[in-house]
Each structure stands twice: as C-alpha cells, then as structure tokens.
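Support request, please re-run this one:
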Amino acid sequence: MHEAPRPTLPPIGCNGRGVQRSSRHQPIGLQELPIREQFRLVSETGVFDCFDRLPLRHQLADYESAIAEFKLPVHTASWFYRLGEDEVLLAGNLRICREIGVRCHNIMTFKHHRDGHVLSDVEIAEHYLRVYDDAMGLGVEPSFALHVNTWTEDFLRVRSVAGRVQARGVPFHFTLDYSHVNFKIGNPAELDRSGVRGLLERGELVLDPFEPGSLCEQWLDMGIVRWAQLRAAGPNQPLNLWHRDEDGSPGRGIQYPMLRPGAGEWHSPWHAYLLEPSKEAIRKVLACHHAQPHSPLRYLTTEFINLPDYGLGAGYDLLEQNVAAARFMRQAWDEICDRPVLRASCEGAA
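Re-run finished. Output below.
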C-alpha cells in the first residue's frame, strides 16, 4: 500500500531589508549592503530558498547577476501604494516583477486616498480587481497585505473586501503577517486604531492565535492566505525606544527579537514566552497547509527588518533573527508532518 505523497513546504524567502550583520557596535541602520553582498549572506545561511525584495529599475542588472551567481531566485516582492497617486508606480513595479521573475507581488495599499478620504470597501475591491487583471496579464500574482497604516489595519474589512472580490469570480489573495495583530494584543490604543477594542471587551472577537475562533483561524478558514510572513511581535511589546520620529515619538514596536539579545543589544528586558503567539500563528498556517489537499499557500518569508517601527537602532544581528525564524518554520513543518493523524480541514488546526 502506497503512502499519500508528503505535502510540500513552500519556498522560504528572506526579506532583503533584513540582511544586516548588525551588532551592538554597528546597530541596525537604513544604509544597506551592496546587492551582491546581500545575496551572498542570505545564500550562505543555508536556510533560505529565495530572496524577497523588489529591485529598483536601475538595480535590475545587479539582481540578475546575483540571482544567477547564488542560485537564489526572487519569487516575492512588496511595495506601498496610495490610490490616486501611485497607479503609474504600481504598473511599473509589476513590469519589474515580470522582468526579474517575481511570481507574487505583495501590495500594501494605504488606508487614505490621495485626496484624504478613507477608501471604501468597494474602492478597495475595485482596486484589487484592476490590479489582478493587470498583474496576471504579466504572469504575476497580486496579494494584498495585512499591514499597519493600510486599509487592513481595520481587520474586519478583510472579510468584506475578499467577499466582494470573490463574488466577481476572482480569487482573493491575502498576505498574512500576524505580527500586525499580535503586537496590538493588550494594547488599548493600538486596538482602538483597528476599531476592535469594544468587540474584544464584549468577547465578540478573538485575536490570540491560541484561542479557538481567532482572527488567524478565521482568515485561514476563508482559504485566502497565499503568502505567510513570520516576524515575531510580542503582545503589547515595548515601543522601539532606540528610534525617534521627527516629532520625537518612538517607533510603534512591531518586532520582537527571535533570539535572546546580548547585553546592550536591545532596549528592554526580553522574555521567550512573548514569542509564542507569533510561533503559534505560523504553526496554524503550516498545519492548515498540510491538512488541505488544495491549499492556497504558495510563499513563506521571514520579515525581521530595519525600519523605524521594527528593528532600526537595535544592536542584535538582524540577519541571524531571520535565520532563526526560517529554522523555526522548518522545524514546525517537520513536527506537523510527523503527526500520525491530521484533520481533513484546517478549521481549528494547531
């Protein structure tokens, strides 16, 4: 009797903004390494299948050379867009995606239109449908991101927009980075920014991925998660105290070190248990993928990056955090595959 074929773990990519061998003496900064050096460092870790970054047009030759030299393709790439302002930019980036071999473009659309109004669900759905036609015509899949400062920071809008798109006979692809939920748990101000504080207090919504019926489970059960990203973020974790915006306020704090920082490498006490919600969310993603014969999941990336709300100014090794995240995903996948029995549905998978 032949065993059923083992499900395949999607390729794991490393976000190019996370390729820094930073330290206490050379903190995480916005200055980036040469492109070839980024590819070399990612390749030498031995844990990544691809590189995750959208090149600028003048960087294409360097990317093509590095891809060929290190056998490290670029399957995925992300960018921010504002409707009413960035339509030409988006069209150009989709062409870059096609030229460099990107299979999926992660689209982070700001909540507000250029003229200042908040985008409606209808506007976002129409935006998705236009992008879907344009992108698929170039052989590139679009995926709309869960991300702060975009329309999806209002978490409940995801179901509405996805439903509108699907009603038109088009699949809705969603990029799930649950760090953008986890860091809000227990933080009243952040919950208010997402408009969910009252729902949580009344027990009508669950964010904690360990709890049945969590937002993580709901999105997975919708069958929309095309791309999953792992960045650890602790519930109500400290702000990024080592970066100050122009108005003096610290970064929001959406990145929690995967590995215990050494002395002077981080601004706050570190506790391993604060990693668990991030780990559980990705376990659920992988368990759902394993349990579904026709899983929509195609891409995985690690997302420890250098920007102000994340790691800017910290003294830990940024690339090593991404390596630890990739190793965790591989370990979690092996553990899921070794389970003797799995449900046929991903509902409640853990």
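The CA atoms of residues 333 and 339 lie 10 Å apart. The domain at 12-337 is CATH 3.20.20.150 (TIM Barrel).
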